[in-house]
Design brief:
Its EC number is 1.11.1.7. This is Peroxidase. InterPro entries: Haem_peroxidase, Haem_peroxidase_sf, Peroxidase_pln, Peroxidases_AS, Peroxidases_heam-ligand_BS, Secretory_peroxidase. By secondary structure, the chain is mainly alpha-helical. 48% of the residues lie in helices and 2% in strands. A two-stranded antiparallel ribbon has the order 1-2. α4 crosses α5. The longest helix is centred in the N-terminal third of the chain and has 22 residues. It starts with a helix and ends with a helix.
Length: 361
């Protein structure tokens, strides 16, 4: 029997409501466009097991030391926010000056995370029979796999980045990486310069659901006067770990589930238990509070948006094609490369690799 007009109308209304609900729940979940030169299957022919090798290494490393997950995730953030996602944070300093690692915001990056990237690079070189996978792609994949290894969402990573032959200045690092003492307006001012918005800010800040914070990054909230936005019990516990200003100790960024990638970071903010000013102000500020509340209520919403924002962040000012190089050692520019530019030999190598990739070699 054919449906009556009333039933048909009701069915259409149900579909419309369901569609609206999905869209409303999804928020800004339109996938960001893939940057020119990147693709999801970039190494399909030249090194088909590339993603598997990174995944297996990270999974094993996190099993042995869960702390390395936060270390690898943070490396990707600190790379992309300064000069773009070009692996410049991995470069050692040289005669031309100190590298990005010597800038104050990067002094607490984990040495084990740097070592892991080079170890993955060595495995890929053996598997791919040469310098095929860039260090910047390794950073992006290792960050994703660190999130997955601690219970977080998986997301597809566009690949094909090239590595920069030069690092940023210390001043570039200081201006590109927001301090943990930052409030939402100053955070948004920094993010606008790299085409990220308030939704990205709140979602990416959720990376603080794993890892540790140094006392010196938040002790201004404890001394000389306690921050009135801080939960009193939380304040008391922090003072036990950090009894005086300048104490060289660390504490969990997420007091509820410090080693699990979940939405408890946002639950902490609702309870005024955010560690940094840059964390807690996401809830204090009226512009970002609704997103904090939404992610605290619905972990899947957070996971979905985190994946979208990570893909968006991972494409900031990427070098592709004949730009940059594929480093043979993630800590040093390739031999023959002039600081700040590419030599003819390095350029020839990069062009040759691009040609090999297009031919499937």
């Amino acid at each position: 029997m054919a449906p009556t007009p009333l039933l048909a109308a009701a069915a259409l209304m149900a579909v419309a409501v369901a569609s609206w609900s999905l869209a409303e729940g999804a928020g800004d979940l339109r996938q960001p466009p893939v940057a020119q030169g990147l693709s999801f299957d970039f190494y399909k022919r030249s090194c088909p097991r590339a993603e598997t090798i990174v995944q297996e290494y990270v999974k094993d490393a996190v099993r042995k030391d869960v702390g390395i997950a936060a270390g690898l995730l943070r490396l990707h953030f600190h790379d992309c926010f300064v000069q773009g996602c070009d692996a410049s944070v991995l470069l050692d300093g040289s005669a031309t000056g100190p590298g990005e690692q010597q800038a104050p915001p990067n002094l607490t990056l984990r040495p084990s995370a740097f070592a892991a990237i080079n170890a993955i690079r060595d495995r890929l070189e053996r598997e791919c029979r040469g310098a095929v996978v860039s260090c910047s792609d390794i950073l992006a994949l290792a960050a994703r796999d660190s999130v997955v290894s601690t219970g977080g969402p998986s997301y597809r990573v566009p690949l094909g980045r090239r590595d920069s032959p030069h690092f940023a200045t210390v001043q570039d690092v200081l201006s590109g990486l927001p301090a943990p003492t930052s409030t939402v307006p100053s955070l948004l001012a920094v993010l606008r310069n790299i085409n990220l918005d308030a939704t990205d800010l709140v979602a990416l800040s959720g990376g603080h659901t794993v890892g540790l914070g140094h006392c010196t990054s938040f002790d201004d909230r404890l001394f000389p006067r306690p921050d009135p936005t801080m939960n009193p019990d939380f304040l008391s516990k922090l003072k036990q770990t950090c009894p005086a200003k300048g104490t060289d100790r660390r504490t969990a960024l997420d007091i509820r589930t410090p080693n699990a990638f979940d939405n408890k970071y946002y639950v902490n903010l609702l309870n005024r238990q955010g560690l940094f000013t840059s964390d807690q102000d996401l809830y204090t500020n009226a512009a970002t509070r609704p997103l904090v509340e939404r992610f605290a209520r619905n972990q899947q919403d957070f996971f979905n948006q985190f994946g979208v924002s990570m893909v968006k962040m991972g494409q900031i000012k990427v070098l592709t094609g004949n730009q940059g190089q594929v480093r043979r050692n993630c800590s040093a520019r390739n031999p023959g490369t002039v600081a700040g530019d590419l030599s003819w030999s390095s350029l020839a190598q990069t062009v040759g690799e691009a040609a090999a990739e297009s031919l499937g070699f």
